[in-house]
Design a protein that fits this description.
There is one protein chain. With 140 residues, the chain is of the alpha/beta class. Helix content is 21%, strand content 30%. The protein is built from three helices and eight strands; from the N terminus they run βαβββαβαβββ. It has a four-stranded mixed β-sheet. Strand 7 and strand 8 form a beta hairpin. Helix 1 packs antiparallel against helix 3. The radius of gyration is 16 Å and the shape is globular.
């Protein structure tokens, strides 16, 4: 079976607040939006934010009160890009979870939560090239 993810959808409480965070923070523009959901075309997948109660209704289940730890990641092309992006995200409703620093395994990263508490790692990894289409390649 092909290894791929087609869509990642996050449940949000306030779609307008979420839209401001992703549009003003990351600079992303929705390719589709209505009063319940916004979809953003990524490089190879679609990212969505959907009103949490609507997403839960669609799943037929209530999301766990405390899910396991996870983080989405946004890689940047240069070390110098990490901290400014984190500050911009914090300025549009995000919360810095961990200031940018150099982890023992290399690179440079920090963590920011979106207004609904979803964690984003903002990272630069010199061993993971980013091509002209924004695709990150795992390299050792």
């Amino acid at each position: 079976m092909q290894q791929q993810i087609a869509v990642i959808t996050l449940g949000v409480v306030d779609l307008a607040r979420s839209r401001r965070f992703y549009a003003r923070g990351f600079g992303w523009a929705p390719v589709f939006e209505n009063d319940e959901i916004a979809f953003y075309q990524m490089n190879g997948l679609v990212f969505g934010t959907w009103l949490a109660d609507q997403l839960e209704a669609d799943m037929g289940a209530r999301a766990p009160a405390r899910p396991g730890a996870f983080a989405l990641a946004h890689n940047v092309p240069a070390r110098e890009d990490v901290a400014p992006l984190m500050q911009r995200l914090a300025g549009v409703g995000g919360k810095v979870l961990r200031a940018a620093d150099a982890p023992p395994h290399g690179g440079f990263r920090g963590y920011v939560a979106d207004p609904d508490g979803h964690a984003w790692e903002i990272a630069w990894n010199p061993a993971w090239p980013i091509d002209e289409n924004g695709h990150v390649t795992f390299a050792t």
